Automatic annotation (TrEMBL):
InterPro entries found in the cross-reference section: DEATH-like_dom_sf, Ig-like_dom, Ig-like_dom_sf, Ig-like_fold
Protein name as annotated: Ig-like domain-containing protein
Taxonomic lineage of the native organism: Eukaryota, Metazoa, Ecdysozoa, Nematoda, Chromadorea
SUPFAM superfamilies in the record: DEATH domain, Immunoglobulin
Protein's organism: Acrobeloides nanus
Gene3D superfamilies per the UniProt record, alphabetical: Immunoglobulins
């Protein structure tokens, strides 16, 4: 069975409803969704305690959202907003609801933003993008992959030699294969992977003076 963006949460097909309920139960994700001042998603402390004692809080909370008039579209919008704080934790519920794939794009004209941090002896390089599913990051120095670095920013030492350092950032997003929603996103003709590679960032103006 299919569903539309204006479908009430409580009217989702049974299988999708159950997948979504389990997704918001994983790692108590529902507590982030309902921990705010939005009237539709607001729960009192007593209600939070009550739902936390249930074996299947997701089922009950989705029914509650249906009673409160929430549709697929409004719930996706809520998850999208929360993703700005919680990142990829909010991806799975949106994938279950078949949110449209959004290729990665730069979030600002400067592909990599450079700033001096701490006591002035370090530089922060930040690569800011947006897309759905949540973008993933890799950093390269002189075309050498920086192992173990998968965040949107890195901190490097600032010294007279900084101007010679060559950094770039690779960012991509993908709908992985082998998931319940994979066949929908990876059907023939659909885009399910995107990638950007930044220009080399110029650090010459940030090099510290000779000691």
């Amino acid at each position: 069975m299919s569903f539309e963006l204006n479908t009430p949460i409580s009217d989702l097909p049974f299988g999708v409803f159950q997948q979504l309920a389990r997704a918001i139960e994983a790692n108590n994700l529902w507590q982030h969704i309902f921990d705010n001042n939005d009237a539709v998603y607001k729960l009192s402390p007593l209600e939070m305690e009550k739902y936390s004692r249930l074996q299947d809080p997701g089922t009950h909370l989705l029914r509650l959202l249906g009673i409160r008039g929430q549709t697929i579209k409004s719930f996706i919008s809520k998850l999208h907003a929360l993703a700005k704080v919680y990142g990829s934790d909010m991806d799975k519920p949106q994938l279950i609801l078949k949110r449209k794939f959004c290729p990665v794009i730069w979030a600002r004209p400067e592909q990599i933003l450079v700033s001096i941090v701490g006591d002035g002896s370090q530089l922060k390089l930040q690569c800011k993008t947006s897309g759905f599913p949540t973008p993933q990051y890799q950093w390269f120095e002189e075309d050498r992959l920086l192992e173990g670095v998968s965040t949107s920013s890195i901190v490097i030492s600032r010294c007279p030699c900084t101007a010679r350092n060559v950094f770039r950032c690779k960012v991509w997003n993908v709908v992985e294969d082998g998931q319940e929603w994979s066949s929908f996103y990876r059907a023939n003709g659909k885009v399910y992977y995107s990638e950007l590679i930044s220009n080399i960032v110029d650090l010459s103006s940030f090099a510290s003076p000779n000691q």
